[in-house]
Write a structure and sequence with these properties.
The protein is about 50% helix and about 20% strand.
């Protein structure tokens, strides 16, 4: 067998073993372990630690993994009384059994992600022995920091945080100071608080800056009104949980309080009544948000059990809807329209805002062009955005994309696809831009609509940058940053109303995505793959 056949067969062996062990685990545990206990564990984790930290990412991924496997194995899912001793047993199994099984599942996906950039290393040692080492991919910056913590725009991040904080205060005052009963606020939603919740959801969705729509929803406002209903109830529940925590000695007793239950029919009727939306539109959005066994808790945070909808507060409250709605459409293979417009529109708008008051630039945006190459072939394309720094005689050409298929789930990226995106942008778009901009007259054409541009400048040095909505990769001279990283770099290199593209590119061009093959022990499992033996480091795999 060649390298690809060995890795492919090993992937199948590990998957088969994981599926068998998960079936055995499901068969030996009751229905609460399939959904309610995993969800409660996620919520307690989000209460005790930042929702975006690695431990909570893992809890969400394991919860979705268990539910997906329960659905895959045709397990009956029904509402059963939440039992605290049973929940405690689940938490022990989570550490000792479920994390190992989920890590095996991840490891199997990793060795099956064959690509020339970060594929596993298989080294032959003897006639039929191969040692496997997986890769560790890392970058100087974590792109997640830029949108989780607002590193790209601290002022706007602080404004959004204040909006959310103020809403928490309003809910807290309603329940604690005004002594409104939780049951009353739940049964008869407060219109003012509900409208504030719409504002929070729209804050996310308005970052599309376009009327994105699909056969699920007509526009961001429709979507916000439905999600806001669940956000309202999640806020109520999260405050009730924290009040109960002050009264309860055993933190695990809070587990049963973490689960939110809605009668589906009543829930839909309530949303219609409070939102004013037609019933069919509400039904479309609610059904879309239901998780049908896909391993994406934030994309699909509702679970339909019998006649009820089940969820937990954190899946609604910490959800970044501008991303999860787009990703969810891709995962459910639902066409979403006007989205491509959001990429160029939003990126353009954010760049323009970042460059307000900057005096040494000319800009160009969405400029179509056509020309004949040296072979006489007609080529056409358009340049998404360009910045000309007069002071240093440098030009930055930006090609923006938003590719859905970069993530396996919340925790793992598909580096094969990110690598393909990077290469595709440079090969299909940027290579054309480079040919077109070899002539000074074409540079003049590019910036002709900006009154700040003056012809007759020396031929500038031109930098080319790919921009993705969320991801980065740096291979050789090819660079891709996330939109949030781009904003960070622009802010960083603007000083006294001047941008220094030369220094900015000096930092970006110095970034390189690192791939390391690290061995941490000399202990290996020997796994038979046909006539071959593959040695897998014991720290990478849980194997018996």
């Amino acid at each position: 067998m060649n390298e690809y056949e060995i890795l492919g067969r090993l992937h199948e062996i590990i998957d088969d073993d994981t599926n068998l062990k998960m079936k055995e685990w499901l068969d030996s545990h009751n229905v609460n372990n399939y959904l309610l206990y995993p969800l409660a564990a996620v919520e307690l984790g989000a209460i005790n630690e930042a929702p975006e930290n690695n431990a909570n990412l893992l809890r969400r991924c394991v919860a979705s993994f268990v539910y997906a496997k329960a659905r895959e194995n045709d397990k009956s899912i029904f509402i059963k009384k939440f039992n605290t001793p049973g929940f405690k047993k689940y938490l022990k199994a989570y550490e000792s059994e479920l994390i190992p099984l989920y890590q095996n599942f991840r490891f199997s996906r990793e060795i099956n992600d064959i690509n020339p950039f970060s594929k596993p290393r298989l080294v032959q040692e003897g006639n039929h022995n191969y040692k496997l080492t997986t890769s560790l991919v890392s970058d100087h910056y974590r792109e997640e920091d830029f949108y989780f913590y607002g590193e790209d725009d601290r002022q706007n991040a602080e404004k959004e945080q204040k909006q959310t904080f103020d809403l928490h205060i309003k809910f807290w005052n309603k329940i604690v100071l005004e002594q409104k009963k939780y049951e009353e606020l739940s049964k008869y939603p407060d219109i003012e608080l509900y409208n504030c919740c719409i504002g929070i959801i729209e804050k996310d969705l308005n970052k599309w800056e376009a009327r994105v729509r699909s056969n699920v929803f007509d526009g961001p406002n429709y979507l916000a009104k439905v999600i806001a209903y669940f956000y309202y109830h999640a806020m109520l529940k999260s405050i009730a949980i924290r009040i109960d925590m002050d009264l309860e000695d055993d933190i695990f007793e809070i587990g049963k309080e973490c689960i939110m239950y809605f009668d589906k029919k009543t829930c839909i009727d309530d949303i219609v009544k409070i939102s004013g939306l037609p019933k069919y539109k509400v039904v479309n959005v609610v059904n879309y948000l239901i998780n049908d066994g896909k391993m994406n808790l934030l994309e699909f945070p509702l679970f339909e059990v019998e006649e009820s909808l089940v969820t937990i507060p954190s899946l609604i409250l910490v959800n970044d809807w501008q991303f999860t709605i787009i990703n969810g459409h891709y995962l459910k293979k639902i066409i979403i329209t006007n989205r491509e417009k959001t990429i160029s529109t939003v990126t353009e708008g954010r760049i323009e805002k970042a460059l307000l008051g900057v005096t040494n630039v000319a800009v160009a945006k969405t400029v179509p062009y056509s020309f004949k190459d040296e072979m006489g072939n007609k080529l056409d394309s358009d340049i998404d955005y360009a910045i000309y720094d007069f002071t240093h005689n440098k030009v930055l050409i930006i090609e923006a994309k938003w590719i859905d298929k970069h993530y396996k789930d919340e925790i793992d990226k598909i580096y094969r696809n990110i690598f393909q995106t990077l290469n595709s942008i440079y090969t299909k778009q940027i290579d054309k831009h480079k040919k077109f901009l070899q002539k000074q007259e074409n540079i003049d054409f590019l910036f002709s609509n900006d009154k700040n541009y003056k012809k007759g400048l020396p031929m500038p040095e031109i930098y080319y940058l790919a921009v993705d909505k969320r991801n980065q990769m740096h291979i050789g001279e090819r660079h891709m940053v996330s939109e949030y990283m781009l904003m960070y770099f622009i802010h960083k290199y603007v000083s006294e109303n001047q941008i220094d593209l030369e220094a900015m590119w000096g930092e970006i061009s110095g970034l390189q995505t690192k791939v390391e093959y690290i061995t941490v022990s000399d202990s290996y499992y020997e796994i038979s793959v046909g006539d071959e033996i593959v040695l897998v480091e014991q720290d990478d795999l849980y194997w018996k």
